[in-house]
User: Fold this.
Amino acid sequence: MFWSGLALVSATTGSPAAPRDGSELDIVGAVWAAGPVVKAVLLLLLGFSILSWAIIITKFRQLGRARRENAVFFKTFWAAPNLAAANRDTAHLTYSPAARLFREALAASPTPGEGNPGRRPALPLDPRENPTHRALRRSLSLEGERLSRSLSFLATCGNTAPFIGLFGTVWGIMTSFHSIGIKGSASLATVAPGIAEALIATAAGLAAAIPAVMAYNYFLGQVRRLDSELADFAKDLSPLLTSPGRAASPE
Assistant:
């Protein structure tokens, strides 16, 4: 795949690539001799592959850090003597989705004495009007979007890259038949260039799609696990923030 990408760059700059041995020369030569349509297909697939790998590396680091900081946050939170101490001791965990959810809900939760004076104390609060519950729902939604961001591109790449490569394959076969029609013979020298274009386009499509699909499935599992942790924590956190004795220990 490296020499294919190098050949694509050479084809666009006008300078031939310098392969290391004869087997690589065949691949580079086939790409170099490909028509403009197949070259455009390969260039598009190369762009898909580069973007996919950039997202894979970024998401791997993001989700890994989120898992590690979540573990630290939960340990610190449940060991804290009160919510204020938990907020102070976890302030440095900026990559933890659970810590961000906790800070958002804590900021929206009214402290004792800050309720609405116009509300009758004897009437129970409607959960839909409770600012703490509203902040928890909003934070859960925002954290879910943040964790799953860019995964749609991996899914798109995994689904479309093989078909883009298939388009290059069909075009290469059409080129072979066109050459046969012009020269009036089906010799290897006539059909080989078009067949080479077709096979390279197929391989490029698969090379772009397979890592994207594998990464998407892996990251989707990680995101679902983190979402489940956040939902469970939100259920435990809600009564702590809305109870009259919220200054007590989280435990």
About this structure: Residues 1-25, 112-125 have pLDDT under 50 and may be disordered. The chain has two domains: 1-33, 34-110+127-242. Residues 34-110+127-242 form one domain.
